[in-house]
Amino acid sequence: MLNVATGAKWVLGNWKMNGRLASNQRLLEALLADPQVNAGHVGLAVPSAYLGQMTHLLAGQALRLGAQCVSHFADDGAYTGEVSAAMLADLGVAFTLVGHSERRQYFAESDDSLSAQIRHAYAQGIMPVVCVGEGLSARETGVQDAVVAGQIAGVAAALAGRDRVMLAYEPVWAIGTGLTASLGQIVAMHEKIRACLLEKLGSSCTISILYGGSVKADNASDILSLSEVDGVLVGGASLDAGQFKNVCYGAAK
Q1: Rounded to the nearest 5°, which phi and psi values hold at 210?
Q2: Which positions ≥6 away from 98 have C-beta within 8 Å?
Q3: Taking every pair of C-alpha atoms in the chain, what is the biggest distance, in angstroms?
Q4: 251 and 13 Cβ atoms separated by less than 8 Å
Q5: Which residue from 44, 76, 212, 217 puts its CA 20 to 30 A from 15's CA?
Q6: What is the pLDDT of residues 207-244, one digit of tens each?
Q7: Which domains does the chain show, CATH number per domain?
Q8: Is-catalytic flag, 199?
Q9: Measuring CA to CA, which residue among 131, 14, 123 is closest to residue 72?
Q10: CB distance 117 to 76 below 8 Å
């Protein structure tokens, strides 16, 4: 499970449905050669098809391996196409995204399914990175706080009693659009999320809240400089070695 004591902020990349064996290797070679990137506070969530390759490439390295999703089924069985938390653990996966907006949108993942994913990930020593965030209509009508609070409430029981909890706030309207929430909007939502988690979980757990939403080299430093932000979840920029390196440089300051 993810653990870092360096004081650096988290940088987790999400390749989404991208990658090929040859390009994956070239990208990893470029990243692993840089000690500011090949570090324990940096990770990459890759398609399940390439987890085996990444396990090999990351053997003995500090950079963490992540999955983009995990099955809500706990045990082996007749669940064609599913990848269990136990399988991910077998491959050395340190973290998995849970409830990314694209999973919610295209695969209709429910609170019950997400809660099961969270429980199974924890049971296998894998850190679930729970993604929450509002769409454009919610932001425009001023109900973004209620939407995000509802998403947290839906999985709060699965998070209760944990030593460590990690969430990623991703304003859906700022994913893949080139738009980025203002620094003020980011601070305000991160404060709301932390208050909501403290109310539901208490103060005994360590809470990390990442920001995701068109994070790239030219805005990462400003976002990471915010005390309310514990790291970033990087989408398209994590597929570009130069972009991802520059994001990591901002996290190590």
Answers
A1: -100, 160
A2: 69, 70, 114, 117, 118, 121, 128, 129, 130, 131, 155
A3: 49
A4: no
A5: 76
A6: 999 999 889 999 999 999 999 999 999 999 999 999 99
A7: 10-251 (3.20.20.70)
A8: no
A9: 123
A10: no
The span from the CA of 114 to the CA of 71, in Å, is 9
- Within 10 angstroms of residue 79's Cβ, the number of other Cβ atoms is 12
Bridge partners, 120 (sequence order): none
Give the Cα separation of 167 and 208 in Å (integer).
6
pLDDT digits 0-9 by tens, 138-162: 999 999 999 999 999 999 999 999 9
What's the rounded Cα separation, in Å, for the pair 18 and 50? Answer: 10
72 is catalytic: no
Q: 123: which 2 tokens?
A: 């049971």
Structure tokens at 79: 């669940």
Which amino acid makes up residue 243?
Q
Q: What are phi and psi of 83, to 5 degrees?
A: -125, 115
Catalytic entry in 102, 109, 134, 170 = 170
H-helix or E-strand containing 41? none
Q: Give the other-Cβ count within 10 Å of 187's Cβ.
A: 16
Dihedral sign computed on CA atoms, order 107, 236, 159, 209: negative
Closest among 220, 246, 222 to 233, alpha carbons compared: 220
CA 76 – CA 148 distance, rounded (Å) = 33
Marked catalytic residue, from 41, 100, 120, 190: 100
Chain Cα centroid distance, residue 59: 21
